[in-house]
UniProtKB/TrEMBL annotation, chain A:
Family indicated by similarity: Belongs to the Ahb/Nir family.
Organism (species): Magnetospirillum sulfuroxidans
EC number from the UniProt entry: 4.1.1.111
InterPro entries: AsnC_trans_reg2, HTH-Siroheme_Decarb, NirdL-like_HTH
Domain Siroheme decarboxylase NirL-like HTH per the UniProt entry, residue ranges: 9-53
KW Thylakoid (keyword) present: no
Record keyword Lyase present: yes
Transmembrane segments: none
Name of the protein in question: siroheme decarboxylase
Pathway stated in the Swiss-Prot or TrEMBL entry: Porphyrin-containing compound metabolism
UniProtKB/TrEMBL annotation, chain B:
Protein name (Swiss-Prot/TrEMBL): siroheme decarboxylase
Family, as annotated: Belongs to the Ahb/Nir family.
Position of the signal peptide: none
Limits of the Siroheme decarboxylase NirL-like HTH domain: 5-48
Residues annotated as domain Siroheme decarboxylase AsnC-like ligand binding: 64-138
Lineage: Bacteria, Pseudomonadati, Pseudomonadota, Alphaproteobacteria, Rhodospirillales
UniProt cross-references to Pfam families, sorted A to Z: AsnC_trans_reg2, NirdL-like_HTH
Reactions catalysed according to its record: siroheme + 2 H(+) = 12,18-didecarboxysiroheme + 2 CO2
Pathway: Porphyrin-containing compound metabolism
Alphabetic keyword roster: Lyase
Enzyme class of the recorded protein, top EC level: lyase
UniProt entry tagged with the keyword Endoplasmic reticulum: no
EC number, UniProt record: 4.1.1.111
Length: 165, 149
């Protein structure tokens, strides 16, 4: 856990997004009892530490014409997963790349990558290209295309007891 | 959507200016005023193209989260998906093409809270929930360039 209680307050207040107004950081501060200077300093610091991975306009791929997205899951030997994960994580076609546990016998896959595209064909072509280029085509893998989006919103981390600042 | 909308979406996904008037700062880059930036963002939000102006948090830094999956019989999918979406802790919920056909992300203050939500969903639906927490993050963010063709 790398964030303080005050930082978590700020992150939670940001979950529904910045207001579209002249001074959005000042507005955000009202919700958590910080002034504008403190909000900007804290966000700058969170961004610098990489805890805020990005701050900006969060687009909805589907509405922008990226109608197809596949969660491509791979079964990679444990001895190779870190190296292959790092390579796949750098592919321009890949927007997320995580290692997760296998759950045998139901679920043999330990590496998850997300690939977005305008249509299914484009995504399938991109996946084949990645597998070929990165030399991982021989590892069992499967694209789980999304069929329906039931919910998509910002994460809320809730309150927790944290070390006082 | 015009050229200015496209630049707005292309150039400001990562580093919103951390200055008191960020929309005015964006406007200066694009050659328009703050009011027009706000009007455009408001329109793009209403159209559903923009979810929000906000932050993406590095996984594992704040609170706890997991990716969960369920194999839901086809005739119960709507009902179980609605049950899952009810939880404020669930921030993504998708139907995917697999025997495990319902995939969702649970985020909460602590791992115990995540477990409580998973157990509750399991109990209310009567369906097993696969818990797949992130173990390692390999993604290097080089930016998701939109193609406007």
């Amino acid at each position: 856990m790398d964030v303080t209680a005050r930082e978590l307050d700020l992150i939670n207040a940001l979950a529904s997004g910045l207001d579209l107004c002249d001074a959005p950081y000042a507005q955000l501060g009202l919700a958590v009892g910080m002034d504008e200077v403190e909000v900007i300093e804290r966000l700058t610091e969170l961004r610098r530490r990489g805890i805020v991975r990005r701050l900006g306009i969060i687009v909805r791929h589907h509405e922008l014409g990226y109608r197809a997205n596949a969660m491509v899951v791979w079964d990679i030997p444990d001895s190779e997963v870190a190296e292959i994960g790092r390579r796949l994580g750098q592919c321009p076609e890949v927007t997320l790349c995580y290692r997760r546990p296998r759950r045998l016998p139901d679920w043999p896959y330990n590496l998850f990558t997300m690939v977005h595209g305008k249509d299914r064909q484009t995504v399938e072509t991109a996946i084949a290209a990645i597998a070929e280029r990165e030399g991982v085509a021989q590892h069992p893998h499967q694209p789980l295309f999304s069929l329906r989006r039931f919910k998509q919103c910002g994460a809320r981390y809730g309150r927790r007891l944290a070390a006082a600042e | 959507m015009d050229a200015i909308d496209r630049r707005l979406l292309d150039e400001f996904q990562h580093d919103l200016p951390l200055v008191p008037d960020p929309y005015a700062a964006i406007g200066r880059e694009l050659g328009i005023g703050a009011a027009e930036v706000i009007t455009r963002l408001d329109r793009l939000c209403r159209a559903g193209c923009v979810s929000r102006v906000g932050a993406v948090i590095k996984p594992g830094c704040a609170g706890a989260s997991t990716l969960a999956a369920m194999a839901v019989p086809g005739d119960r999918l709507e009902q179980v998906a609605a049950l899952v979406s009810e939880y404020p802790e669930v921030n993504h919920n998708y139907q995917r093409e697999h025997r495990l056909n319902l995939w969702f992300v649970v985020t909460a203050a602590s791992r115990e809270d995540v477990d409580r939500v998973l157990a509750d969903i399991r109990r209310r639906s009567g369906i097993e929930v696969l818990d797949l927490p992130m173990l390692e993050d390999f993604h290097i963010n080089l930016g998701f360039g939109l193609q406007w063709t």
